[in-house]
Amino acid sequence: MFPHLRDICVIHMTGEQMFHLMAYPLGALAVGFQNLDQRTDLNVGADFFFGFAPGGFGQCFSRLQPSARKTEVYAPVRGLLDLNKNTSFTPDHRPRRNADDIKELWCRRGHGKSVVFWQKEWHGRREQHEWRSMTDFAILRQASVPDNLRIARSRAAPNLGPRLLFFSGGSALNEISRKLKYHTHNSVHLITPFDSGGSSQVLREAFAMPAVGDLRSRLMALADETELGQPDIYRLFSHRLPKAARDKDLAREVASLFDGSHPLLKALSKPMRQLIVGYLRHFSEAAPGDLDYRNASIGNLILAGGYLDNDKGLEPVLFLMSKMVDVRGTVRPIADVNLQIGAELEDGRRVIGQRQMTGKESAPLGTRILRLFLSDGTGELPADSVRLPKRNHKLIAASDLICYPPGSLYSSVISNLLPAGVGRAIASRTVPKIYVPSLGDDPECHGMRLTDQVAALLDALRRDAGLVSTSALLTHVVCDEQTPAKDRDQVSRDHGIPCIGQPLAHALKPHRYDPEALCELLISLS
Predict the structure, then answer these.
(1) Which residues pair with 401 in a beta bridge?
(2) Among residues 84, 203, 302, 372, which one has the fewest Cβ atoms lying within 10 Å of its Cβ?
(3) Which string of DSSP letters, residue by residue, matches 115-126?
(4) 106 contacts 81 by C-beta, under 8 angstroms
């Protein structure tokens, strides 16, 4: 009866509730509803529809029943606005109003991702109305490095800083993250939980859990370390048990952790101390009697206890720890699973376990890695056996810049790209996508030139994203100016993307990036 009502919803609400609505994502809902007088069943099939009570928001209907009149949602039957011409209208009757500031809001689906709103507001006897639209645009711009205005703005208001997203693991990005938190509080760090070396391996073998060491160290790098933060909790989470202590002394300190008498625990306020000691006791109850506590991070023990206390889930305890130390960003595992990574090598061998690849706890591979895969510890798992969680997909979809940062190319960066959906999520986001290769020697990149490293990164992404353009996965390679010009030119010739040299190396440590210089570069490009 009213075909022109399609793709419309009408909402009446009071005060500032309209602004809450506009912050909500609009989903596609097929609904029908009745007008307040029950004279006509409109069944409009609106694409967007939300019902809000005047006293507060929270009610959403798939179909309004006659008893729902009190919600103040109403549909006029004549005098509708012309959505194509964006003209206003005067309804032949108005809704009941409890206050003078009730607003009327229409919305319709536009072309592509646009949503168009028509707002009408009553101020006493005066009426005001306007169109507003929200559209997802992809914008290309000329970037200046360093962009001093962007850098100054980010330092002045880091809570409004850009959403820089990193696929990383290991410790290579921690020093950079400590500088980054002064530029933005909105960075996102998706961390590999597949580490099988160091103290993380002790916990993995004891509890069959994901690796937490890299997650904990990144949380600490992004924590508020000032007196305005939680310095006592920060010291506790960062403390390691002695590596060379006598057995008797080590046992005494471990016992003081589990009974709450450790000096670092006693420095905490009582509610926080009780929560943390609860996690440590869960850990103590589940730990094998012969567990080696030498050089163990107390933060890792707390994370493991929280993992066990939350039905073997990392997300709840990571969220809580982030709040405890006021983390200036978001840190999550790329997937909350207990798996290993494996590598297929050029010489025909296969190795399983991250520590077999890094050349730190075992001899370097001495040959190229052809391909990385996920493993249950015995063999290769199907590519789609682990999927990118929706919560992480949303973080990628909201990013302002995606960075493949310095670190071990395969075990720290490419391992984060293995869950199904990561490559597709990256390809669907039109933002700068930057690869920053390591400056020092990477044992995982045996005999690989810079262009080979870029090819390995793209190959891993295309295994999930398919045959998409290079620029959908990687837009720029940025390296230090000490990288030979011929190597940079080779990257551009082979892959068709710019490879830019910048003064990024640390003045005193030429095999490391200067954290401030790299942060300013990323802020300038975002």
Answers:
(1) 164
(2) 84
(3) EEEEEEEEETTE
(4) yes
Helix locations, 84-243, DSSP H: 148-156, 174-180, 198-207, 213-222, 231-238
Q: What is the mean pLDDT of residues 310-329?
A: 90
Residue 516's contacts (CB-CB under 8 Å, 6 or more residues apart) are 179
- Note whether 375 and 340 are within 8 A (CB): yes
- Tens-digit pLDDT profile for residues 455-497: 999 999 999 999 899 999 999 999 999 999 999 999 999 999 9
**Residues forming a β-bridge with 501:** 479
Query: Residue 453 carries which DSSP code?
Result: H
Pairing of strands 164-168, 401-404: parallel
How many CB atoms neighbour CB 106 within 10 A? 20
CB 33 within 8 A of CB 63: yes
Collapse the DSSP code of 104 into the 3-class scheme (helix H, G, I; strand E, B; otherwise coil) and give the result: strand
Instruction: List the structure tokens of 289.
Output: 């009697």
391, two tokens = 């919560």
146 neighbors 139 (Cβ within 8 angstroms): no
pLDDT-based confidence at residue 128 (cuts at 50, 70, 90): low
Two structure tokens written together for 141? 């711009």
Contact between 166 and 387 (Cβ < 8 Å): no
State which amino acid sits at residue 443.
P
* Pairing relationship of beta strands 340-345 and 369-375 according to DSSP bridges: antiparallel
Q: What is the largest CA-CA distance in the chain?
A: 87
